[in-house]
Design brief:
heterodimer; A: alpha+beta; 2 domains; 10-stranded mixed sheet; 13 helices; 10 strands; about 15% strand; elongated; B: alpha/beta; Rossmann fold; 4-stranded antiparallel sheet; 6 helices
């Protein structure tokens, strides 16, 4: 086998370049898919409720203040199971609040109640631990946030003049939580007051009776088993005054439509990768077969049947395309890892080499290589041995 | 062993009328006989060898081997007959560059489905007999022209084919190597094979049982023209 592969070194190199192109472009597409799917999965796992109006809240809790009374009222709505008060703020208030997909956010969660999101009951940590009830002045940070800020377990993160100990780094999700700073809601409320001059003024003036428990930008709401989440969301909107309720399916649709451009881009990238890489691969394999036309003529002169010759060519083509495919995958992963290593300094990741992508690329290359070899072989075996020897001379 | 009757073969020319390479050729070569066909380039002698060796089909006529009609019966039948009856020695050796000398010789066995160990033993014997045993693990590019032709000859006779066809077997060799190959071809005839050699070299005639001249696609029986060259 090594002898065969040695004779096909340039063919393997050609296939490897084609497959590397497919895998690299596919990995970028996978990265975008994961980002969109992750957001979709999150919004479909909970009902997000925010206070009506404008406020400091960002992301899915954007809106006005959601007081404690409203949270209690939501919990009383039939079909609701679990309400977790949350505070979500931009880490840097000068950043546009609309850039929620890439913005660094503080997420304060009420650790005394379980997180009701069905798809993310807890954000998994890759290092350290998750937050627990009773924690104060500690944070768990997203993977991209940790990378871009150079944070490790035990490091101190100063926020509005207060030092926070990093106790956990979240697993990379390729979605918004990669840029989160998750902290106990009590600490997040203090961050809110520190960031929002208007809020400080209102509290100091005593114009409105605001308790600490009222300082919520939103809540994550769960539903009982068997309940339709959209129906529960509509029920909350009807029965609780002064709230903005995001209907899960509507939010999912909104997210999908807002990312339609990325989806179209993704389809274009995928199609381009398959056409360019596929053509390169098929052409390389077919050319390799035609280059050996004289050898096939000699073999037929020695008594090789169509079946024996076809089997040999197909076997060699499969070995060559599989080897080229594996080299191409390794090449793409090597390049992608190097680029991602550079991009990680700013908390970015451009490639996602998923198992389905790598398997798909290998299967695609082997099938296409085999098809090209079959096509070339059918043309070769039609020639008489004398003609094959003449053409290959 | 070989009986060819009324062979006709034409090629399409890029422009003009078709070229008739074989024009009603009859040829019979019995087992144990060496026939030499002399002719100038383009006379049709290589086409004759290709057609009687079933490397390409004739437009008309028939080929029989050991009394069995083997022409005009389709690709699979021709392949079977080639594997069973015919060994080829080509002017340009046609060794596979990716295989060693030994593997090139064994290639003849790959499609004949003989016992591998037996074929291997025989291949080593042949390589030793032709003085290239020590080159068994070398690739064709590492061999001289004479060595390549000797390896190609070993491949041609590995399966002891009853019909051996040699197309200008000494065309690319010096005199010494040419003599080795011609002697080997004569020895195969003495051993019982029907051997046909096409050549432009008069020295190929030595020891021949029959000599033919090929001219404009027609085969004439007779000695070479005066001067020893092809007519």
């Amino acid at each position: 086998m090594s002898k065969i592969l040695r004779g096909y070194a340039f063919t393997i190199a050609g296939i490897a370049v084609g497959v590397a192109g497919i895998v690299a472009l596919g990995a970028m597409a996978e990265r975008i898919v994961r980002f969109i799917d992750g957001g979709d999965r999150f919004v479909l796992g909970q009902i997000s409720v925010a206070g009506r109006g404008m406020g400091m809240g960002a992301g899915f809790t954007a809106g006005g203040m959601l007081p404690a009374a409203s949270i209690r009222a939501i919990a009383e709505v039939p079909g609701v199971q679990g309400v977790q008060a949350q505070v979500m703020l931009p880490l840097n208030p000068s950043t546009s609040q609309f850039m929620t997909l890439t913005q660094e956010l503080i997420l304060g969660v009420d650790l005394s109640v379980p997180t009701p999101n069905r798809h993310y009951p807890a954000l998994p940590v890759s290092e350290g631990r998750n937050l627990k009830a009773g924690d104060r002045r500690v944070v768990a940070v997203g993977a991209s946030f940790a990378a871009s800020h150079g944070l490790r377990i035990g490091d101190r993160l100063p926020l509005e003049g207060e030092p926070f100990e990093v106790v956990g780094v979240l697993q990379r999700t390729m979605t918004a939580p990669d840029r989160f700073v998750v902290m106990p809601i009590e600490d997040a409320r203090q961050q809110w007051i520190a960031k929002d001059r208007l809020l400080r003024t209102v509290i100091a003036s005593g114009v409105a009776a605001i308790n600490a428990a009222d300082l919520n930008t939103g809540a994550a709401v769960g539903w009982r088993d068997g309940e339709d989440p959209d129906a529960v969301a509509h029920r909350i909107a009807e029965r609780v005054a002064g709230v903005n309720v995001q209907i899960p399916s509507e939010l999912s649709r909104l997210l999908r439509s807002s990312t339609a451009f990325f989806s179209a881009l993704l389809v274009g990238i995928g199609a381009l990768a398959f056409v360019i890489g596929g053509l390169s691969l098929a052409n390389t394999v077919a050319a390799a077969v035609f280059e050996r036309i004289r050898d096939f003529g000699v073999k037929r002169a020695l008594g090789a049947t169509d079946l024996q010759l076809g089997g040999e060519v197909l076997g060699e083509a499969l070995a060559v395309t599989l080897t080229g495919g594996l080299v191409g995958v390794a090449l793409a992963i090597g390049l992608g890892t190097a680029v991602d290593g550079w991009a990680a300094r700013t908390g970015q990741q451009l490639f996602l080499f998923s198992a389905r992508l790598l398997t798909g690329a290998l299967v695609f290359s082997v099938l296409l290589g085999a098809a090209a070899a079959v096509y070339a072989t059918l043309r070769v075996v039609r020639l008489s041995p004398a003609e094959a020897i003449r053409r290959g001379a | 062993m070989l009986e060819a009757r009324g062979l006709v073969k034409s090629y399409r020319a890029p422009a003009g009328a078709p070229i008739r390479a074989l024009d009603g050729v009859d040829l019979t070569v019995a087992a144990g006989r060496l026939a030499v066909v002399l002719g100038a380039s383009g006379s049709g002698k290589s086409t004759l060898l290709n057609v009687v060796g079933l490397l390409e089909d004739a437009d008309a006529g028939e080929v029989r081997m050991a009394g069995e009609r083997v022409s005009g019966r389709g690709r699979a039948s021709a392949t079977r007959a080639r594997g069973r009856y015919v060994g080829f020695v080509f002017q340009s050796f046609l060794l596979l560059p990716s295989l060693t000398a030994l593997d090139n010789v064994l290639l003849a066995d790959r499609y004949a489905r003989r016992r591998r160990a037996e074929a291997r033993r025989r291949a080593h014997e042949l390589l030793a007999q032709f003085g290239v045993a020590e080159r068994a693990s070398h690739y064709p590019a590492q061999l001289s022209g004479g060595e390549q032709q000797r390896v190609a000859f070993c491949r041609a006779v590995l399966n002891d084919p009853p019909l051996l066809l040699a197309d200008e077997p000494t065309g690319n060799l010096d005199d010494a190597n040419g003599r080795v190959i011609l002697d080997a071809l004569r020895a195969r005839a003495r051993a019982g094979a029907a051997v046909i050699v096409v050549s432009h070299r008069a020295d190929a005639v030595g020891g021949a049982d029959a000599v033919y001249r090929m001219e404009h696609g027609r085969l004439e029986s007779g000695p070479p023209s005066p001067g020893g060259g092809p007519s």
